[in-house]
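your task:
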Amino acid sequence: MGLVFIGVASLGLTGCVLNVGDSESGWDNQASWEKSQTKNRANLARLSLGMSRDQVQVLMGQADFNEAYIQEDKKVHVLFYRTQHMNGDGKTTKDECTPVVISNGALVGWGEKAYGNI
């Protein structure tokens, strides 16, 4: 009886595929990161100063990296989105990302200059 169940159960699982991975640990293929970079660059062009953090995240999606801290009574959030290919190692690093800076819930800038000014 037990062997019959195992045999039937294994037939039912034939063809099942489990895909494990995410954008922070690596990319399945070159088209994936290229598509993400293209989308992120297009969305960066649609940002407007003063947008709320929620508006930014709806437009941009989930950040590849993020930082948060308090600076002189201001809540600062920095979201990093992959926008340029630097290394062929299959992993996204901060130097391949554009920082998006949000202070007290509002977008105050993006890019290296904005990140350097906080």
User: Anything to note?
Assistant: The helical segments are 2-13, 30-44, 53-60, 112-116. The longest strand covers residues 74-82. Residues 43 and 60 are 6 Å apart (CA to CA).
